[in-house]
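User: Need the bound-state model for zinc ion:
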Amino acid sequence: MAYEIGVQLPRPIEEQVTAALRERIPALATYSNEELPRQVDAADVLGALGYLRRIPLLHSIQGLVDETLPALFDRDALRKEKTVPLHRTDEVLTVAIANPYSSFKLIYEKRFPQLHLACILTYASQIDAILTDQTRIQQITQDEIRQLNLEEIEEEIKDFDLNAPSDDGVVRNLQSIVQEGITRRASDIHLLTEKDRFHFTYRIEGDLIERRDLDVKIINRTDNLLVQLMGFETMDKNRGLPLSGRFTALIGNRRIAIRAERLPSYRGFHYTLRILDKSYVSPKLGQGSLALHPATMKYIRQALNLPDGMILMSGPTGSGKSTTLVAMIKELFRTRYNIIAIENPVEEEIAMVTHVNMEDVRHGPQYIKSGMRSDPDILLVGEIRDRETAELGIEAALTGHQVLSTIHTTWPAQIIIRLMQLGVPKFYVAETLKAACGQRLAKKLCRHCKEAQRLDTEMVDQLGLPDVFDGHEIFKAGPGCSRCDHLGYAGRQAIIEVLPITDEVTELIMQRELTSIEIANFIYDQYKVPSLRELAFDLLYNGVIDLPSAADSVRLGLISARDKKWQPTSLL
Ligand SMILES: [Zn+2]
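Assistant: Bound-state model below.
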């Protein structure tokens, strides 16, 4: 247990800080004392420290330092005790400190024994900045910013205001389409032209729903409007090349990012507007749609706690792999971490993470090399798709970095085989891979209108379900109701399997030529982690998902003798 505030606190004080944090932040109740430091930032810790010692806290002391003062003291001593004098009157010397338990008082009492000492608490980094930079270059001032010509910058912020209907019918039409998409929580809006038709549709809960026709007369003006919103000139669309851009929709006082893709088609265009509204779909690991089986959660956490190594995630497109990686990064996040994410495209921006939008996936290795030279603790690579990327990932993992990435395989155990197929020597795979994960996303049934369905022996046999489903009541989608937007489904549930690559597994991989099934079975037996299929059985058995969802996500059928004997655990 150690708090990352740039100063070393005595052990008993750390314990007091922990207690104070628990008192001040009720959400920390679920974390153990070991986990707790990872869940708080320096501001929380300093707040607790200030609270314990009744010292006021200042997040920044820039501009508060009387510049004649530090010269009166031994600079090395100030640096060592992490303190800096701020201000002096006839009676009081005000000083900033980063560690109330250091010997800072001696420095000041020696020089000004008659003055009363007043302390304020601040970050060690604030004090360091003042003591190291004597000839600091002034940052741009507000006045200077005001005088700058900001027009260019303003043009780049492309807001599409959905709060008031436009007088222009074409604009209002698009406003209404985007607004409906956002309020119905669509993930994408498609607008496309076909022969004599212009229509749009939404993707909601993974399915494209009803198509609606628009008047063909507004095709050209709608096209121009979208091209402009994406930040292009209208003539750019005539070049016959795909256009990618972004704009933000303003709804109430919320800004929602929209990633727009214009694919020129034989009949005109196909727009895909991806709504990046993460206000409700950015779950935390272990919660909501990312609720995980306890064993899965345990091994993911253990792998994340390692200082280096690779964590790879497999799963089909749209299975929410990147959402899970983002949740993992948030789990990992500590201020000292330098996190670099190289993606194509950037999905969700996380504060304090350097996001790199990899324009061209063929340049992946160049981006990764540059990322590795940027002193990262954690490297998130969008996808390992070739030998070069795989080798760079391995190299990063071997040189003390934690690498998170996705890879294309059907089942998680195949990740090991896939890396070897890409040409990575077995030894490196075994040494660096720490967790092989697989993910699916299953549509959840609407709790309010789902309908019971009893399975008999014949169905269980034909469908390839475990024996326990014989005579068991599962659920299927109902007719839909107002709560589920008449879809019969509401929300989605991530199904995540993790295969921890422990020393035993590493040894097994090294010593024998195993198939992915043998590796998986060994891990299932040894560590009691549930497979994707078992997790889907569990959701189906408990009425959370229906048969089509289960079949879609984990390919039911051709059931193994092992799965046939599956028993419900009801842990999710
Ligand atoms: Zn419903």
